[in-house]
């Protein structure tokens, strides 16, 4: 009897943990923060923390869209190419005298078009989104390389608009952090407090059941493809504002980082489950790993290996928690 009661309490505890958005990522964040505090001498400085937040914010803007799309049961491997392509459009237009605000809007419209075509091809031709976006990832990266000849573009001017996008405002912290926090708040509200959010979860949980409930499944997916592309374009423009330059390989590999951060944050790759709060913790963890390893003296190329290990551990923990909670 006592053993049964303990088992019930354990199951309830696991259920509570499972319902806590991003618990696994938050726990990993705390552990890594403690480890890097001892192994990296400059880790606890304001400059270091600002660098972590900046890296996490630019990735996080992309990951917000990836989270929404993955909850609805789809993938987008083209976000890195959209990131770089939109930034290049913004930079190139700025250099030929187009006002920065107009160049920014046009860059986002290009991203909108790419997201719309990704969604349309996926839902109308019933092609797995993995294949669709793998193709468009290669397509837009190839177009970008052919367009630039492999050379980067630099903007030499100064502008208040670039400061609004990603200028410094306190102790090395940048405006990208504010953009990220605002986007997390907006997306989280939409996901948890609106009919759109219910449709996203229902679409990812069971497409056929969602259709029977009258949910326009194809429209939900196309909208999410557009959102993730526009947010990727925004992130590219935000990073361009930080460096005032962009090269044709900018954003390469970001698609895997964004998916990793989203999965570490508790979003299921099968769809139907996830949260923006978890993604917030996930991108902070990824940003902390990147900066912490460098400051600890580890070779920079260990970063991807470390993220891979964290991703595998996060998936295993998430899977086991679900099994034990049943």
UniProtKB/TrEMBL annotation:
GO MF assignments: transmembrane transporter activity
Membrane protein topology class: Multi-pass membrane protein
Record GO cellular component, one term: plasma membrane
Location within or outside the cell: Cell membrane
InterPro entries attached to this UniProt entry: ABC_transp_permease (IPR001851)
Segments crossing the lipid bilayer: 21-43, 49-71, 83-116, 138-157, 169-191, 222-244, 256-289, 301-321
Pfam families cross-referenced by the UniProt entry: BPD_transp_2 (PF02653)
Keyword terms, alphabetized: Cell inner membrane, Cell membrane, Membrane, Sugar transport, Transmembrane, Transmembrane helix, Transport
Role this protein plays: Part of the binding-protein-dependent transport system for D-xylose. Probably responsible for the translocation of the substrate across the membrane.
Name this polypeptide is given: Xylose transport system permease protein XylH
